[in-house]
Every structure is written in structure tokens, then in C-alpha cells.
């Protein structure tokens, strides 16, 4: 037991300040940290659990949660009551001052029950954003204003089992935010700080002190273990330790993890134990890829056991047994199986002297050494170990049994593990045999380089705050594995113990981070302010050491972190030394020290792709660069002193809203740069909290109705709140809505890009050849074909692979296109072979499957390559021959693709068989086909009639005979209608030249009337990244350092040309850019891109042209409505074809000095019924953008228009699909409208206009229109995502000033009509200008960007 971890004051009467205000008072009577104890009664009980199982209750553990506790919320700490022995705790009958006792669920953050307000800040301290504490008080009494410090008073009654009498009884509080005092029956027990680690107290003495009192019905005196006991806990929302917990998440309060009481034998018991492993593995000394998995020798396991008792326990023995290996879902514990290693430990004297007193800056002060009476040390060897890694997380079960000395002449009950004295205590844990090492720039696990596919994860539950249920943790683990993550950073504090158990069993590497962050001292221009103050050193060391002492037995923990954004200072160097002394088996990292000595890993935040690439060398690691608002590394050790270290980005790719553009660029660097091992995305989950509508009965919540928000979601949407939604005075708005998944763990579209870039299989097309064959084709599979590399043998080889061998059967063989080639398959797993996956190959022609192989297995081992030979055959009648003939080498990139997919062959614990682990799409070269009807007939192909007789109509229809178009005037003078002989009609507004109406032969309208028709479109609702810049800091400018505050207010007000000029001049002098810190949204709105207005000098001109079309032409200028400045000169020519198709030929001359405009395209409103089904040929099915489309494959995709909307919590531009050749929108009957494009377009379909999205603050507040807003873009700026506070869209994904030219077609679709056939015919029948665009003759490239 630790009497008082603080300066020399030991009694409350000596305190000059309240406990919760004293930064040196870390705890009173709190026990040292230790490995989780299970308190098994028997050895067999410890062996009945399987990996990943929840902890099972034993007779030695009394759970206190989950349960309802009595609760009193006090808004001001000075009004909080104190338990007393007279009342046996809090006086729950006392009322007054508006205070009333109720109940609350435990665990739960009390704000989620309606008590007080949740507060979100990125880095400001909500209780003292000014950091107003005088300089001479930081070491004694930093400001924690009482008026802002609420208190939660908890109370629960319990009774101990009679069997516990005579044993040590201990209380475990799993997590309390931020500090607490504890009483038992009104008697003070202790005090604790640190919101993210357990607080344990011994209750034995208090229980014995209250032994008298109470009686039973039979008149016997009630023992201390049979009477009801009352546990009282007073929790403070803030304390001095809160200055170390400024961690970019919700400031919430209360008991948020599980609590229980447990007992241990009083004579001697296992107090703590640590496990370390060493693997005799061959390292990959040259740093290259291994040709085979590293050879593995024996594994050594070392166990140190700390015992507790009244004296040195002579004759007591510790017996150990190591059982296994086990693998979740495959190798399970088997009753009666012998251990792989077993033995008995020798007893050694106490290392800590059985009562030593240590300074708080010594890690031993926070361990169990002060109460240790003896310890045992054992080592064993596993000759053929099954090693632990994230791909095959083999575990062993270590069981420790403590036996009393054998009594001569006394026969005790036989105990598992051998004969001897009585069994006193049993503990057990899962052990993974693995070893972490840093060798130069390489991070090695079991001797092999480790790839870190990681994500940062806050503990967050939308309904319970920081009280995360195990079911939610399990969902996170499974989803992370499904998305190809293999690592997680516990940002920015140790997580609940259940999390590590799941990561052990399912296979996730954990970067375990100490509960330390002082980001808010940025306002003092020194995040390391507290790290430089000796009085705070004990708190730093306690938080790091207690984490290691609790978590060091977990195989999943591969790296320790000193904390996050706590600056630099001698205390962090001290903490590094403590952690290395406590656990020398793992590397330690820390981002804020740059390249100083106290990090084993260079772990930057938000580097650019170029900077990341340079960091593979020691020199590159020490070159300063700007990121995340500061200079890296600053300062740095000289490269020659330390050398290159591994690089793991502790944060990269800020997933805020519609984000994560450029993601695949980072992974190209990871795979090509030795020493760069990966990183952790920021972050996992949107930290939205449930918003309850006004008037919700408080009921079980116990708080004021509706006190935590007032959201009411529309159908299909969820009401999740962020900073400012709960009436809090200080907040950072939506900056915590930056996860890859929504609060309910539904993946954002960006997840599929992440999954693709991180997938463990890579493909490259090594060779591909086509030929045409007249052999028999019956649609059979070509699975497993092995084709000759020679072109002359290709046809024969493919024919031989088809059913029947292609040699028999009657009748002429139908002409077919045969393809074959070689794909190089690279296994990017670090340890696992590809044998657990099944590979399937499909040939896609215009996005539709034309040939599919049966699944096959590959055997490539980790980091190796294997050739995959592919063969396919497609009848010529299934090919778009006419389109290929018309466009030749300029056929769209949707023509021919190979889809290669790798799926689980069998069920895995985290996904069912068939789950897609990796998918690649390879564009194939165009085949040299005998194109055209005559050539096909000469090759023996059946004609159209023959095909019809065979039941398969030609894929591409012939152009029908057409009749002249008629022009008429509508009801209004400006309404002109053009109608073909079949009755298809197009309407125009001659004032603007806009196409306003599309009607089928029955006169049914497709476009929404009264919306202006098809018009130019250059605006988008800004994404969070578009809004990211210094503007976000304006809310805090009043507390920022003077220079920064001035810049935050001034920069956004400067004209862009001036900012650009300053950047240009600064670049010549080697200074960092400041212009990129002004957001796109600001510079767009300054130029009026959100308020463009069309002005036409003349109305539209209508004329007939020689090819039979009617052309409507108009020229216009788009101007800033506020200033009148011209922004875009536009020309639009609409060609109405006699075949019933309208082509809009568009030109836009964009004139701006800005680096990019939002988009260049057209916009139209389509009637609501035609959103029942949307299908398109292009990339999908999920949302994608030019800088986030690698994982969106080309195909024919289909979903409802509603499903195309991405409901980001803060509405913004969303739902785009790129690389689209055509878009079909249909109603329930199948009627619809078809949009086609030359070249390909980018489309979105939404129930909300960009203006609605921009104006809304929450998705659930959006009210759908009665039409669909369809955006048909020629160019659209990427979304960026390297960070969310500067302009991170790469140049190649921007839309600069220049002249753009494209064409878009529209026509009605009839039910049953094939959209792809209609789109092909639209191109075949397109006017000459459009055809020239399609064949690349007429091109329009943007001019150089003005600057």
C-alpha cells in the first residue's frame, strides 16, 4: 500500500490546498499498479477459458458493476457533501439547495445521463483557457475554479460472502474521471487521480474496524462479511491532474469502467507478475524482403512473481504451467492436455525490502514492490513455439499456482499441478511468444520487418460516453480487421483491460500510450511547460509506469508511448528512462521530441508524402519541416550520434468528414522506402454524442430532461452532436468528428480506400495477349488454365482449358476473343502465406462480367511473389464491336478489365468465409479485333438474325431510321420545344439557352420544372477540409500568443493575391508557406464562387444543321453577384438528334488567380420518382473522388438515389462517383432518364442542393427536396486529407484556371431498355463535334494557373 504519493505532507490537516487542487498529491492509500488479477479458486478454472473470452466471475470476485448506484450531482465542488461514519456514508435522505439523490447506471459518463454538459475542446482547457495560474503557484495550486468543477457523489451497498472472512479484501475502481475520494461505511479509504488507470484500495482494515454491530434473526452476531456495507465515492470533474489530460476528446466525468471487490489469502498471495519472452530468430540482416519466413528457434519465457504476506513465506512454492498453443476459432483449450512447459519456482527475498519508500519520480513508487514480501523467478523454454503476430495470434495459457508448505503427516486434498501443501492462490494470463526489436531503421517482430497498418482510437460510445461496452470493443476489433488494419494506438491514454485481451486474441498490435497531454499550453508557446517543472515529474512518471505495470504481459502491446503533445522537457527524458528500466523488451516512442534521444522510433504527425519519403535516412529524419503547426524535428540529434531509426507516423491522414484523399500515395511510400513502416490514421470513430429531443422523460437517466441536446433525426438519419451542441461556453465545434466510421461504427466511404491501400496482396500485369479464335465457346469456366507465353499457342491453350477441350462437338465454333497473360502476385503479409485466401478472376467488358474463373488458392509465403496465369474467352457477339470500331484506340477506359479478388477460404474469428481481403482491377490493352459486321461475318460470326434465333440479341443496336425534327413554341413565349418523330421532346428556355424539359413519347416529364433546367455549376458545399485553416482558430484568438492571434485574424481577410505574393517571396528565402493556412472556403467565398450569377448578352440561337440535328446555342458570363467581377465565360450548344438524344457541348473559360475552383460541370434537377434506382458505368459502388478512387473499381453499379448520399454528421459535398461513362435514373416501373458523357464525367445524385448542404450544421436537420439534384461534372477538386487545417489537395487533383471543353448527353429511358446499349448508341449517333471529343481530336487542357 502506498501511504501518500506526494511531497512530504501526509495528513489532510496539513494540506494548504484541497486534494484535487494539489499537483503533487497523486494518491492516498492507493495500491501500486499490477497485472490484472483473476483470483481463481482452482487451476482447472483458469484453464476453462478460451482466447477472446470475457473474464468469468469467480467466488473470489464480487462485481459492483454493471448496476445502478445512488447518485447526487452537485454543480459546485464547494456544495458537495461528505460521507460520515454516523450515516454510514452519504446522507442520501438530506435534500436542499435544489439537490436530490437519484440513481445512475455505472459505468457511465454522468453527462450522458443528463447531468452537466459534455465539453469538447481540441486543446484548450475548458476550466481555464487563459492558463491564468500565477507562475509561482503552478507547483502548488494550479487554478481549477470551484465554480466550474462539478462533483458526482456515488453510493452503493454490498455484502461480502462469508467465505471471505479472514482474507484480504481489495476494491478495484477501473476508471474514474478525473479524481475521487473513497469511503467505506463513512470511513475514509483513500484518494486517487489519473482518469484512465485503475485505482485500488485495501478494505480489510476498515472491514475489521466495523466488525461489531448488526445481528441476525437467530441472535448470532453478524460478522464483518455478512452485514451490508456502503461504498461511497466522491468524483471531481476536474483536478490538478486534468492539466495532463488535454487530449482532443470530450471532457466527460464519472465512473466509466467496471468496479469490483476481490479477496486474496491473508497468509500469502500472488500480488503481481510479469512475463517476458525471447525468440531465437534469424534477423533479416540486409533489410530486404525475405525469400522465406525467418527461421525460428526455441522461445524462452521468463516470469517474475511478486508475493504478499505478513512475512517471508518459508516453504511456499509457486508452480507454473504453460499450455497451448491456442488460436481463436481454430485451436481451442482441450481438457486434460499436458502443458508444453511446467515447473516450480524458487523463492527469493523481497526486492523492495517489504516496505521501502520511494520518491514519486521512481517507477517503483507506483508498483507493488513496497508491499512485496518475496518474489519468485522462473524461466522455461518452448522448443517449437507457435509465435504470436497479428496475422496468426497464437497464445499460450500461463497458470501460476501458489502452494502452502507441505504439512508432515497431513494428507491434503490433491491439487492439480502436483502434490504438496494446500493451494493458496491461482492466477493466469494469456502469453504470446514474440519479440520486438529495433535494429537501425528497422522495426522487427520475431526478426521480420513489421508493417504498421494502424489507426488511432479514442474510447467512445455515443450513448455512454467513455463507458465503452465490451460488445462495442469487439465490433471495433472485427471491423478493424475487416478493413485490413493490424494496429491501433490507444490515443491518448491506456484503454480498458478488455481491449487488450481482444487485441491479443484477434491479432492487433497496440501502441500503448501514457495518459499525458498538455497541448493546451500552446497558448503559453510551450507545450512542454509542465515537463520542465520538477513538481510535476512524479505525475508524469506515475502515469507512464502504472500503464506499463498493468499492460506489460499483453502480447499485443508492441510499443510504449510517453504520451502525446506534451512538448519537450527533462521530465520526459526521465519518463523514457523509467520505462526502459521497467521494460527493456519494447521500444518507446514520443512524437513531440522530434529526433531527440528519448524516442526509439521517429513518429511524426502529418508529414507530407515527400517528407515521409525523405525520412528513410538518418539525414532526412533530422531535416526540419513544418507540420501540425510546429517545426519537426526541433531540436534534433545529429544523424551521426544516433543513426537512422524506424519511422512510424503516430498520426496521419486526418479523417474529418469527407476526407482521406491522397491516401494511396502514403502507402506507395511505405512499400518503397526502407525504414518507413507505416502509421496510425487519425482517427477511428466520429466522436458524436447522442442528442435527445426536448421533452424526453428523464426516467432512469436521473437528469434534467433534454439537458444533453435537442436533436430529432429525420427518417434514416441519426442525431449526433459535437462541440457547441450542448450549450457549453467553450468548444471546438466539429473538430472531433474526424473518424473513419460513424459513431454507430458504420464505415465512411473512405474506409474502402484505406482497406484497398493497406491490403496485403499486390498485383502487377506482367504480360497480356489477345487473339481471335473460331473455336467452340459455351460459357464454361477457364479455371486454373495454364497458357503458353507464346502468342501462337494462346488460342490452343485457352480452347484446351474449356470444357470438352474445344476439340469435339458438332457445328461451327462461334468466333471468340481469347485472352491470356501473367499477373505477378505479391504477398504483403509480414508472416502469413496466401493459402488462407481464395483467388478469383473476372474479365469485365464495359463493367459487366464477361468471363469468370473458379476460385483457386495460391501458396506464396510472406513477402514473396508468385505468378498467376490467367486465360479467358468471350464470344465476339458479347463485345461492343461497333463502339470499338468507331472509337478505335480512343475507346473509354471502361472497355476491358481484369478483376482479381482474394477472399477468406474459411471462417475467421473476425469475418465469415468469402470476406474480401484484397481486390485489384487491372486495365487491359485493347484487343486487335476484326471489327465491323463484314469482318465479323468473314470470321464466321452469326448475323443479327442468327444471334436472335440463338436467343442472344446483339449487344449494340443499329441506329434506327430517323425523321426530321419539329420545333414548336410552348405555353410561354420563351419556351421552345424540339420533338422527334417518335415523340421524344426536349424543351428550352430561349432566354438562357438552358435545356429545361425532357419528355418521353408518352409526354412524361423527367426533369423538375421551375428549377432552371441544366445549368453550369462551379460550387460545392465545402468539406471540413475545404474549411480547414487558420479560420478555425479564430474562436480562440483571444487566448493565443499575440503573434499567432494576430495572424489568425488577419490572414483570412487579406486578398489572395497578396497572400500568394508573400508566399512566393518567402519561398525564395526558404520560409514556410503561410498562404496554405487560409482555407479554400475562405478564398472561394472571397471571390464569390458561392454566388455566381449568369448573364447572357443575347438569348439562345436555334438552328438546323446538315446532319439533321437542331442546335440551341448560347454564350454567357458568370459573375460574382456581389462585386460584378467576371469569373467564367461559358458557351453551351445543345444538339438534339432525330434519334431522341440531346448532346450538350460545353465550354468554360475559368478566370481566377486561385489555385483551384470547386468544380466545373453542369447541374440539373430530376423528378423525385426517378431516384428509385440509380445505375452507372464507372467507379464505385461507394463514394469516390479523383484523389480517393484507387479502391473504387470500374463496373456497372446500382443503388437507390437515397443510398448515394453520405450522411456526414456535418453536411458537406458528398456522394460523388468518378470515371462515369453513363448514369441511368429510373422509377419503380423502369422508366427513367440517361446521362452520358464524353469524356467520362463525375456524378452525384442528392436530395439536397449544395446550398442546403452548406447551410446545414447537422445531417439530421436536412430536409429532402421533392427532386434530385444531379451534378454532372467535367472536373471536380479532390477532397485532400493530409490534414484538416491547411490546403492539402495535391496539384494534380485541383481545378485551376483555364479553358475546359466537354460534352454531356441526355435522353429518356423506357422500361426494359438497356442503359449501356443506349449509351453506346448515343455515342455512335453523336454529332461530329462530340465524336471528335470522344476520339481525342478535340481536346481542351487547362491553361497555366494564374498566380
UniProtKB/TrEMBL annotation:
Keyword Cytoplasm: no
PROSITE patterns hit by this protein: GLYCOSYL_HYDROL_F2_1, GLYCOSYL_HYDROL_F2_2
Annotated catalysed reactions: Hydrolysis of terminal non-reducing beta-D-galactose residues in beta-D-galactosides
Enzyme class of the recorded protein, top EC level: hydrolase
Biological-process GO terms, alphabetical: lactose catabolic process
Domain Beta galactosidase small chain/: 977-1307
Gene3D superfamilies hit by this protein: 2.70.98.10, Galactose-binding domain-like, Glycosidases, Immunoglobulins
Keywords carried by this UniProt record: Glycosidase, Hydrolase
Domain of life: Eukaryota
GO cellular component: beta-galactosidase complex
Family: Belongs to the glycosyl hydrolase 2 family.
Name of the protein in its database record: beta-galactosidase
Amino acid at each position: 500500500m502506498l501511504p501518500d504519493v506526494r511531497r512530504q505532507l501526509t495528513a489532510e490537516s496539513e494540506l494548504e490546498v484541497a486534494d484535487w487542487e494539489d499537483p503533487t498529491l497523486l494518491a492516498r492509500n492507493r495500491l501500486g499498479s499490477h497485472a490484472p488479477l483473476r483470483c481463481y479458486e482452482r487451476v482447472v478454472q483458469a484453464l476453462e477459458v478460451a482466447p477472446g473470452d470475457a473474464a468469468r466471475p469467480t467466488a473470489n470476485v464480487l462485481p459492483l458493476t454493471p448496476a445502478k448506484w445512488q447518485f447526487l450531482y452537485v454543480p459546485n465542488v464547494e456544495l458537495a457533501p461528505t460521507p460520515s461514519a454516523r450515516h454510514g456514508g452519504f446522507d442520501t435522505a438530506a435534500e436542499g439547495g435544489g439537490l436530490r439523490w437519484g440513481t445512475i447506471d455505472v459505468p457511465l459518463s454522468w453527462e450522458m445521463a443528463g447531468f452537466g454538459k459534455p465539453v469538447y475542446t481540441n486543446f484548450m482547457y475548458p476550466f481555464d483557457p487563459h492558463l491564468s495560474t500565477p507562475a509561482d503557484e503552478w507547483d502548488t495550486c494550479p487554478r481549477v475554479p470551484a465554480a466550474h468543477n462539478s462533483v458526482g457523489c456515488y453510493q452503493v451497498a454490498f455484502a461480502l460472502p462469508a467465505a471471505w472472512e479472514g482474507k484480504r479484501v481489495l476494491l478495484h475502481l477501473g476508471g474514474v474521471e478525473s479524481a475521487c475520494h473513497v469511503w467505506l461505511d463513512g470511513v475514509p479509504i483513500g484518494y486517487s487521480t489519473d482518469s484512465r488507470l485503475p485505482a485500488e484500495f485495501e478494505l480489510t482494515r476498515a472491514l475489521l474496524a466495523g466488525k461489531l454491530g448488526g445481528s441476525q434473526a437467530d441472535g448470532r452476531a453478524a460478522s464483518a462479511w455478512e452485514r451490508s456495507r456502503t461504498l461511497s465515492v466522491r468524483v471531481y470533474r476536474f483536478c490538478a491532474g486534468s492539466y495532463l489530460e488535454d487530449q482532443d476528446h470530450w471532457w466527460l466525468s464519472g465512473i466509466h469502467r467496471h468496479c469490483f471487490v476481490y479477496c486474496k489469502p491473508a497468509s500469502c498471495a500472488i500480488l503481481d507478475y510479469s512475463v517476458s519472452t525471447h525468440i531465437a530468430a534469424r534477423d533479416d540482416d540486409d533489410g530486404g524482403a525475405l525469400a522465406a519466413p525467418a527461421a525460428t528457434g526455441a522461445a524462452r519465457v521468463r516470469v517474475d512473481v511478486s508475493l504478499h504476506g505478513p512475512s517471508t513465506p518459508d516453504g511456499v512454492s509457486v508452480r507454473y504451467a504453460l499450455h497451448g498453443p491456442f488460436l481463436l476459432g481454430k485451436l481451442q483449450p482441450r481438457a486434460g492436455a499436458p502443458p508444453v512447459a511446467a515447473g516450480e519456482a524458487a523463492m527469493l527475498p523481497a526486492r523492495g525490502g517489504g516496505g521501502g519508500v520511494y520518491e514519486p519520480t521512481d517507477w517503483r513508487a507506483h508498483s507493488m514492490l513496497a508491499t512485496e514480501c518475496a518474489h519468485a523467478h522462473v524461466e522455461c523454454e518452448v522448443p517449437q513455439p507457435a509465435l504470436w503476430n497479428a496475422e496468426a495470434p497464437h497464445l499460450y495459457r500461463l497458470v501460476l499456482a501458489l502452494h502452502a508448505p507441505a504439512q508432515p503427516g497431513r494428507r491434503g486434498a490433491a491439487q492439480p499441478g502436483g502434490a504438496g501443501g494446500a493451494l493458496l492462490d491461482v492466477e493466469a494470463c494469456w502469453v504470446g511468444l514474440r519479440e520486438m526489436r529495433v535494429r537501425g531503421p528497422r522495426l522487427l517482430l520475431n526478426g521480420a520487418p513489421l508493417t504498421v497498418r494502424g489507426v488511432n482510437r479514442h474510447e467512445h460510445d455515443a450513448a455512454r460516453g467513455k463507458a465503452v461496452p465490451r460488445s462495442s470493443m469487439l465490433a471495433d476489433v472485427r471491423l478493424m480487421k475487416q478493413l485490413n488494419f493490424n494496429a491501433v494506438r490507444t490515443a491518448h491514454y491506456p484503454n480498458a483491460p478488455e481491449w487488450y485481451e481482444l487485441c491479443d486474441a484477434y491479432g492487433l498490435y497496440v501502441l500503448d500510450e501514457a495518459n499525458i497531454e498538455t497541448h493546451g499550453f500552446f497558448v503559453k508557446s510551450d507545450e512542454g511547460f509542465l515537463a520542465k517543472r520538477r513538481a510535476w515529474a512524479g505525475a508524469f512518471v506515475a502515469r507512464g509506469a502504472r500503464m506499463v505495470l498493468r499492460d506489460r504481459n499483453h502480447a499485443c502491446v508492441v510499443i510504449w508511448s510517453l504520451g502525446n503533445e506534451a512538448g519537450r522537457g527533462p521530465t520526459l527524458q526521465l519518463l523514457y528512462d523509467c520505462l526502459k528500466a521497467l521494460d527493456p523488451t519494447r521500444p518507446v516512442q514520443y512524437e513531440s521530441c522530434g529526433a531527440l534521444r528519448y524516442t526509439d522510433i521517429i513518429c511524426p504527425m502529418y508529414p507530407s508524402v515527400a517528407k515521409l519519403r525523405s525520412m528513410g535516412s538518418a539525414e532526412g529524419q533530422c531535416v526540419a519541416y513544418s507540420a501540425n503547426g510546429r517545426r519537426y524535428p526541433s531540436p534534433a540529434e545529429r544523424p551521426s550520434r544516433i543513426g537512422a531509426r524506424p519511422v512510424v507516423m503516430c498520426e496521419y491522414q486526418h479523417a474529418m468528414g469527407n476526407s482521406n484523399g491522397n491516401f494511396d500515395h502514403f502507402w506507395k511510400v511505405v512499400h518503397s522506402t526502407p525504414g518507413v513502416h507505416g502509421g496510425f490514421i487519425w482517427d477511428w470513430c466520429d466522436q458524436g454524442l447522442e442528442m435527445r429531443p426536448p421533452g424526453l422523460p428523464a426516467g432512469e437517466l436521473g437528469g434534467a430532461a433534454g439537458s444533453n441536446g435537442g436533436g430529432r433525426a429525420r427518417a434514416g438519419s441519426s442525431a449526433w452532436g459535437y462541440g457547441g451542441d450542448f450549450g457549453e461556453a467553450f468548444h471546438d465545434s466539429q473538430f472531433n468528428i474526424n473518424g473513419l466510421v460513424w459513431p454507430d461504427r458504420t464505415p465512411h466511404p473512405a474506409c474502402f480506400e484505406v482497406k484497398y491501400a493497406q491490403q496485403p496482396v499486390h498485383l502487377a500485369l506482367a504480360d497480356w495477349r489477345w487473339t481471335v479464335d473460331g473455336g467452340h465457346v459455351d460459357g464454361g469456366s477457364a479455371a486454373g488454365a495454364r497458357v503458353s507465353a507464346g502468342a501462337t499457342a494462346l488460342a490452343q491453350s485457352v480452347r484446351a482449358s474449356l470444357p470438352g477441350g474445344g476439340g469435339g462437338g458438332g457445328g461451327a465454333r462461334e468466333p471468340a476473343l481469347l485472352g491470356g497473360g501473367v499477373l505477378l502476385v505479391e504477398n504483403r503479409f509480414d508472416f502469413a502465406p496466401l493459402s488462407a485466401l481464395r483467388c478469383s478472376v473476372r474479365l469485365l467488358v464495359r463493367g459487366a462480367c464477361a468471363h469468370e474463373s473458379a476460385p483457386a488458392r495460391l501458396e506464396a509465403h510472406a513477402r514473396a511473389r508468385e505468378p498467376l496465369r490467367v486465360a479467358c474467352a468471350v464470344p465476339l457477339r458479347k463485345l461492343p464491336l461497333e463502339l470499338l470500331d468507331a472509337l478505335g484506340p480512343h475507346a473509354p477506359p471502361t472497355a476491358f478489365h481484369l478483376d482479381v479478388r482474394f477472399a477468406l477460404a474459411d471462417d475467421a474469428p473476425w469475418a465469415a468465409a468469402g470476406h474480401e481481403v484484397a481486390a485489384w482491377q487491372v486495365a487491359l490493352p485493347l484487343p486487335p479485333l476484326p471489327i465491323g459486321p463484314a469482318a465479323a461475318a468473314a470470321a464466321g460470326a452469326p448475323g443479327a438474325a442468327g444471334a436472335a434465333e440463338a436467343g442472344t440479341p446483339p449487344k449494340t443496336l443499329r441506329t434506327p431510321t430517323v425523321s426530321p425534327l419539329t420545333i414548336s413554341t410552348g405555353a410561354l413565349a420563351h419556351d421552345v420545344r424540339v420533338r422527334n418523330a417518335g415523340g421524344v421532346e426536349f424543351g428550352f428556355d430561349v432566354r438562357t439557352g438552358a435545356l429545361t424539359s425532357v419528355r418521353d413519347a408518352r409526354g412524361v416529364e423527367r426533369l423538375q420544372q421551375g428549377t432552371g433546367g441544366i445549368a453550369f455549376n462551379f460550387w460545392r458545399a465545402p468539406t471540413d477540409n475545404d474549411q480547414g485553416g487558420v479560420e478555425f482558430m479564430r474562436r480562440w484568438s483571444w487566448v493565443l500568443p499575440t503573434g499567432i492571434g494576430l495572424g489568425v485574424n488577419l490572414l483570412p481577410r487579406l486578398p489572395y493575391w497578396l497572400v500568394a505574393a508573400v508566399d512566393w517571396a518567402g519561398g525564395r528565402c526558404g520560409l514556410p508557406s503561410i498562404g496554405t493556412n487560409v482555407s479554400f472556403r475562405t478564398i472561394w467565398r472571397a471571390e464569390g464562387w458561392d454566388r455566381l450569377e449568369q448573364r447572357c448578352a443575347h438569348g439562345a440561337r436555334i438552328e438546323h444543321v446538315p446532319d439533321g440535328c437542331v442546335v440551341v446555342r448560347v454564350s454567357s458570363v458568370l459573375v460574382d453577384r456581389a462585386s460584378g467581377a467576371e469569373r467564367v465565360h461559358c458557351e453551351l450548344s445543345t444538339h438534339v438528334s432525330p434519334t431522341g438524344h440531346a448532346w450538350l457541348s460545353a465550354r468554360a473559360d475559368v478566370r481566377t488567380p486561385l489555385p483551384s475552383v470547386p468544380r466545373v460541370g453542369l447541374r440539373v434537377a430530376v423528378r423525385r420518382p426517378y431516384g428509385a434506382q440509380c445505375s452507372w458505368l464507372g467507379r464505385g459502388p461507394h463514394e469516390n473522388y479523383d484523389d480517393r478512387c484507387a479502391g473504387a473499381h470500374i463496373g456497372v453499379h446500382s443503388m437507390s438515389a437515397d443510398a448515394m448520399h453520405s450522411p456526414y454528421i456535418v453536411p458537406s459535398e458528398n456522394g460523388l462517383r468518378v470515371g462515369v461513362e453513363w448514369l441511368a435514373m429510373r422509377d419503380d416501373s423502369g422508366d427513367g432518364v440517361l446521362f452520358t458523357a464524353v469524356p467520362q464525367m463525375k456524378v452525384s445524385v442528392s436530395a439536397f442542393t449544395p446550398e442546403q448542404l452548406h447551410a446545414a450544421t447537422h445531417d439530421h436537420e436536412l430536409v429532402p427536396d421533392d427532386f434530385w439534384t444531379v451534378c454532372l461534372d467535367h472536373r471536380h477538386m479532390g477532397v485532400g486529407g493530409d490534414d484538416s487545417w491547411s490546403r492539402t489537395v495535391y496539384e494534380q487533383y485541383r481545378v485551376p484556371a483555364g479553358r475546359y471543353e466537354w460534352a454531356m448527353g441526355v435522353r429518356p429511358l423506357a422500361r426494359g431498355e438497356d442503359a449501356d446499349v443506349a449509351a453506346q448508341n448515343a455515342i455512335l449517333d453523336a454529332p461530329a463535334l462530340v465524336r471528335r471529343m470522344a476520339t481525342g481530336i478535340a481536346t481542351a487542357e487547362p491553361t497555366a494557373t494564374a498566380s
